## 1
Amino acid sequence: MQVLVIGGTEFISLHLVRALLRDGHQVTVLNRGRQPGRLPAGVSTIVCDRKDHAALRAKLAGERPDALVDITYAPTTGEDVEALLDALDGRVGHALFVSTGRVHDHALPIPYHEDTPRTLYWGEYARHKIAGEDAYLRRHRERGLGVTIVRPTHVYGPMNTRNNETFFFDRLVRGRPVLVPGAGGWLRQFGHVEDLADAMAQMLGLRAAFGQAYNVTGEEAITQVGFVELIADVIKRPLTLVHRETPPPGGKPVPFGQNLVYDCHAVYTTTKIRTQLRIRPRYTLAAGIAQTFDWYSREGLDRREVDFSAEDTLLT
Ligand SMILES: NC(=O)c1ccc[n+]([C@@H]2O[C@H](COP(=O)([O-])OP(=O)(O)OC[C@H]3O[C@@H](n4cnc5c(N)ncnc54)[C@H](OP(=O)(O)O)[C@@H]3O)[C@@H](O)[C@H]2O)c1
């Protein structure tokens, strides 16, 4: 298949590019060309800012991909999605849109399944993702475009651009304590980036997935504290947890990864993708953390400079 990937050079989208090449697809990526050196050989690049709709139309005029995977959040609005689809003007077979589990109403009881109502619980981010989902699903209903919505949750793994698992590696390998917001009992669900990339690669062209949305993540829900304890066990480092109350709204949050502090559970069912498409993750959370720590060590990140001054003030 000829696959057009929006993005391609950072985290989820780069893992997808690798998975697509492994599976023998021809890959073109569209991005602003800021990190061309990261792309594997054989990938074509269209340099374009997706927010520039006129440029998008001009650059995509000759493209006729079998599949489109829309990954980049730029932040991508409903209008940006419409502009991309207009630029391809019906010349695409199957479109995957990377949305987020955060479209689900997190004020409702867990777990969230694909039909859990979508709300603006997560503000602008949810608004843009819901608008993007709706734009794709409208094309499916009104023009017969094959469309699949992919909703990942905390994605982790090598090259993560979110400082989550690496945040805890950084502290544990340096023998530092880990601050925990409040009791640290809110449940989180993580998915390994290679499982997400493999799931998307497997979905391409699957008619059963047309017009559908899928939660795509790992199988294990774990508390914030449990996540840190698991990491310490897997990388075999002693752990000291220091609990600090979460400040009132407006106060500086207790440092705890990049986006793991918020006060609600975030747990999702993956029954739909497993039963409808027979797609399931390869990595357990422990195995994925071990593999990510190998990458972190190989990259020499255990020796990088880290500024702990904000935490030091909370620890004294
Ligand atoms: N990470 C998570 O835990 C998580 C969870 C749920 C959902 N998601 C969703 O997953 C998606 C991907 O996230 P990611 O962080 O892994 O990023 P990614 O898509 O791998 O990386 C960003 C890519 O987009 C390109 N890009 C950025 N702005 C652009 C623009 N204006 N026009 C064209 N290309 C642009 C970048 O290249 P240039 O800079 O060269 O343009 C880069 O190739 C997002 O939609 C996010 O909402 C992520």
## 2
Amino acid sequence: MYELFPYFTNDGSVGLYSPKDDDIYHSTYGALSEAYEKFILPANLNEFLKTHNEIKILDICFGIGYNSKSFLNYFFENFDKKLSALNTTIDTIGTDNKLNKIFIKAVDTDKNLMFLSPFIKSENKNIFNNKINFSHEKISKLLKKRTKPKYKLKKFINMIFLKKIIKNHPEIFDDSEFNLILKSKKYRQFLDADICRLYAFYKNRGYVYTPLRRLSAFLHNIYYRYISTSYKKAAKYLKLVDFIFEGEIGDARKIILDDNNTYNFIFLDAFTPAKCPCLWTVDFFKELHKHLDDNGMILTYSNSAAVRNAFIQAGFWTGKIYNKENDKFMGTIAAKKLELIKFGLSEYDLGLIKTKAGIVYRDKDLSLDNRAIIMAHDKEVATSTLISSSKFIKTFRGSN
Ligand SMILES: C[S@@+](CC[C@H](N)C(=O)[O-])C[C@H]1O[C@@H](n2cnc3c(N)ncnc32)[C@H](O)[C@@H]1O
């Protein structure tokens, strides 16, 4: 039976744990904060949007959608500034001329997570957060006593995603496994009740895809006026933005092979290389290289030497993500142009890449399963004449 292991992370957004992989989907620090700080803020989107009206994003490992949702939220947060530069407001612009075009392709193997993404609560303020519904000592230890939101998702972001997911996957209404998840009391506290009501409304009345602004009139008199207010807001924004969302369920390796798009930003949020090496191989990165715009960038949370080396071997300039909030380097950025890399790899990072820790994962035909990739990698590490990372670290520290 399909089961989820949700809990509230320290910023009040919902995080998931996977017992099968013994890995977390989201940092206990905050699922939403992590999306903002590792993917959205380092992408320098404001700069990009000053000179581009169109943006294409590939969200690899969409899960419950924090990265795409945070992007859209950030975009709308900054949209008002764009309007004031045009000397107008959202209420007065009154035109159907689209000011921006957004295309997001989101990919995940887990259908239930993609379907569930609009339902997930992104904020639970100031709750006691020292209990989880499953046993995991490490997660329990990392949870603080009270949740403290750092970022806020606009209410209508989930509504927009619900509409897009329904449009992409009308089978959602008949999917018994998914509908059981929605009905389960176990998960109720983690789901947004308004979105659940809206979904039930669509399910009962029959969903017809209409532009949001027509739908807002349609919803006007229904009992949850609150939703209708949020809808109106979304409708106003979407009047000015052409937002296309393609949520694909399947292996990212296969989906990318059939994809003809080039992207301005690629978010890579797979489980760690030790758990899901198939999305960190030099061969997969070579494929991503073909799908990245010349001025585009790939962002990922991973600091692994093997991942950074794979980016370099796949032909990317590779650097680090600097987190202003915490004054720390976290994650990796890969681009086709050197000038897009603001924080290059240090002497230490480059040294580490030349050790056994930097040996890349391989998957020549993008078809091996994770176990086979790990076995081949372990063998290459065992027979390699490179120095070990621990020896390198000792020598490096000694000489510095
Ligand atoms: C760390 S989680 C991503 C969290 C996500 N970004 C979010 O906001 O919820 C990793 C995700 O990778 C997905 N996944 C695992 N193998 C995959 C593959 N080969 N192709 C696409 N997605 C995959 C899992 O289903 C899981 O949702």
